[in-house]
Give the backbone structure.
Amino acid sequence: MAHHVLMWFSMKKNWLVTITAFLLLGCGPVWKGWQMDYGDPAAQFLQEDLSVLGTPFVGKKITVKGIVRKVDISNPGSARVHLEGGIECNFGKFKAMAEHYNVGDIAYIDGFLKHCRKDDIYLDPASGRDHRAAFHPVHQGEP
């Protein structure tokens, strides 16, 4: 009987180790997706202010409001929406979401700011944001 109890505890221990490893290692992409859908942005910007004010937010989720300059859906695995000011937003496999935008549209886009240099700003992953959602952009002189 004691042997069966020890085997049962051993199996439970292995199961817990497996579940813990999966949660720690396997949920990174899931967590990022959850943050895209539900996480609040660290800051919101107008396109003209992002290159000047965005650097402290590299690696964080932000929202940018800007004018669509180009929509590139030529690569099915990497649909992109380009805003004025050198802002490139990678929608990944969400081609239909990128196709929703037309040149000249005003777009609200959420994404993780990968790098932020003058005329070279990259959000990845990125997704469209409802234009009716609250939008309070950071301005010069604000934290």
The CA atoms of residues 9 and 15 lie 10 Å apart. Residues 40-128 form a domain with the OB fold (Dihydrolipoamide Acetyltransferase, E2P) fold (CATH 2.40.50.140).
